[in-house]
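Class prep. Protein, please:
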Amino acid sequence: MQNSGTDIDKLVRLLGGWPPHFDDVEKAHGESLLRYLKRDGLVDEPVFGQVVRYAVHRAAFDRLSVLIVDEGFEAMEGNFLSGLSQQRAFHENRLAALEKELLGTPYVRAKNGQATQTSFMDLLGDPAPSGGGKVTPFKPLTRKAGRG
């Protein structure tokens, strides 16, 4: 079995390599995400750009988290977040958006044209396979007259 580290290194070289300012922390975050995306067959140049941005924000989030723990508090006077906590919240929001795009459900990927997936709503107009009729949309149950 080949070493997965060399496979990821080869993939990174094919995609243009890590930016020069990356250190081991950013590379580790990027490589872990690339392993997952490679396994699912979802890696190309635009996705690699998102992985790079993810790695930058994840490393910054981790660094700020350590500083906040050392600082010993998150709230300042008047219940406002400290400057470090505000910076960490920014990176957390960016991470959530990137994770949603990169690790979306199969439905989200299909909606973006990344995979084929049939939708239930697309099948409503097609005839049923056995009876030749049409699938009817869901109708809520109604009470019969006289019951109460």
